[in-house]
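Input (structure):
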């Protein structure tokens, strides 16, 4: 190795054996998100776009993205020259599209659910697409056609009528052709050239040119996240969001069967996302030699990365937690509720049954997280910050809602009516009881 010993990139070490419950709770913690502070900062931007529409949107885009636009929205058909991409990249996007589409099409709610709860009382439930959706594709520091695929495909297969894809423009006013190509593939009805809080506000309220949407999806930096939280709480906007978002995370569980180079590569693929990436390795009864091998691999592979400066900050914040069994490791992971869980375990598939809280699970040595990030078929927009306890990742149902319905025959009402009238009397809601009794009398 060609770097100095004091330049080593290494994780912090902890042992589950003999730690106090306070110390354990500390290990499960994420960095504090200052959401109140950020919401106060984005409010003037959101209010400005709401009040002044396109004029504000264009000014903010000039200020934050250095792009001078005369119009913020592009409608299809998109000009072919705006989607010209390398044939190899196009082939890769096309294959990813097929896999993600295949998996998300299988999730489309099938035929209506119909149940006769009592003779003559038929209840049903059926899905309908959310009419208008807004997809935020981050674009500040990297181009992310993969995020456009992960949000656009479920919207498309769910049957959303209006799909607005927002992403910050480059200083020359253009959008990366890869993202434009995906916008075309997923049938976007508009591309909004704007980023940050201003893009979220434009989609939440609509402007002269930007269509208003009913639900906003997608990851982004703290400006985007805070704006989503703000508009979600405004009843005038009448808009919902996919889920709360925080920095990306991985928890890797490795035992004696794990390949140290694979484990290190998986840890680093998360660490390169950003300086606030959360990386946890749970080491199951590893010998000191094996652990040292993993550490050496992390250090050596890190120094060879183009994003080594990001990794230099994220890896030292990461932790290695020693566990004495796979069960103890999974129990720790369930308490942590990671966005991504990678199992480098002997008989990895058998441990999946014990997973209670995780966004997406990567099973066995040949299943790197990267495959789920891009192209296996699963979605990469997943709950972070411990929200995997109660949230699912983005999926086809995220773009639909369910309507229930009931139909009752005169005979059905004869049986059900007295039950309802009794409960209505009990709650003192006389008009409710009347609505039943007036019909029962008419049927006599
Ligand atoms: P971004 O598109 O989220 O944000 C860029 C926008 O931020 C700009 O257009 C600007 O409007 C706004 N902005 C920046 N500085 C501002 C300021 N001082 N005041 C007001 N607005 C400001 O792109 P990004 O910044 O590169 O962030 C991308 C984020 O998305 C990262 O945090 C990354 O981790 C996350 N991400 C997550 C996933 C996932 O699935 N979890 C996937 C991809 C990206």
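Output (sequence):
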């Amino acid at each position: 190795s060609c770097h100095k010993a004091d330049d080593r990139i290494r994780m912090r070490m902890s042992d589950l054996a003999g730690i106090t419950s306070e110390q354990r709770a500390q290990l499960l913690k994420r960095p504090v998100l200052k959401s109140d502070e950020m919401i106060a900062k984005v409010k003037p931007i959101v209010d400005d776009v709401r009040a002044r529409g396109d004029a504000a949107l264009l000014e903010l885009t000039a200020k934050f993205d250095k792009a001078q636009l005369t119009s913020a929205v592009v409608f299809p058909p998109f000009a072919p020259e705006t989607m010209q991409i390398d044939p190899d990249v196009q082939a890769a996007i096309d294959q990813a599209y097929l896999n993600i589409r295949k998996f998300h099409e299988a999730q489309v709610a099938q035929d209506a659910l119909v149940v006769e709860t009592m003779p003559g009382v038929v209840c049903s439930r059926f899905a309908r697409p959310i009419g208008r959706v807004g997809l935020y594709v981050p674009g500040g520091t990297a181009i992310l056609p993969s995020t456009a695929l992960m949000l656009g495909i479920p919207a498309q297969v769910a049957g959303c009528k209006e799909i607005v894809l927002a992403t910050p423009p480059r200083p020359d006013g253009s959008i990366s052709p890869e993202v434009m190509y995906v916008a075309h593939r997923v049938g976007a009805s508009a591309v909004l050239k704007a980023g940050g809080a201003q893009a979220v506000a434009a989609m939440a309220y609509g402007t002269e040119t930007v269509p208003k949407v009913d639900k906003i999806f997608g990851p982004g930096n703290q400006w985007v996240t805070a704006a989503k939280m703000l508009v979600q709480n405004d009843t005038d906007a009448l808009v919902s969001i996919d889920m709360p978002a925080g920095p990306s995370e991985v928890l890797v569980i490795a035992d004696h069967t794990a390949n140290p180079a694979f484990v290190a590569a998986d840890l680093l693929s998360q660490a390169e996302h950003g300086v606030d990436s959360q990386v946890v390795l749970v080491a199951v009864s590893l010998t000191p030699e094996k652990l040292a091998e993993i550490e050496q691999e992390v250090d050596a592979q890190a120094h060879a990365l183009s994003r080594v400066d990001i990794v230099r900050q994220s890896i030292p914040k990461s932790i290695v937690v020693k566990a004495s069994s796979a069960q103890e490791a999974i129990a720790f992971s369930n308490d942590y509720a990671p966005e991504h869980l990678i199992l480098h375990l002997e008989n990895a598939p058998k441990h999946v049954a014990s997973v209670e809280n995780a966004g997406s699970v990567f099973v066995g040595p040949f299943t790197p997280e990267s495959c789920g990030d891009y192209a296996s078929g699963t979605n990469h927009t997943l709950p972070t910050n411990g929200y995997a306890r109660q949230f699912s990742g983005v999926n086809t149902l995220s773009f639909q809602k369910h309507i229930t319905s009931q139909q009752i025959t005169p005979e059905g009402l004869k049986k059900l009516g007295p039950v309802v009238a009794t409960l209505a009397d009990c709650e003192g809601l006389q008009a409710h009881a009347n609505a039943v009794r007036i019909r029962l009398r008419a049927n006599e």
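Notes: Residues 64-65, 138-141, 144, 147, 168, 195-196, 198, 219-221, 223-224, 248, 273-274, 380-381 surround nicotinamide-adenine-dinucleotide (CB under 6 Å). The mean pLDDT is 95.
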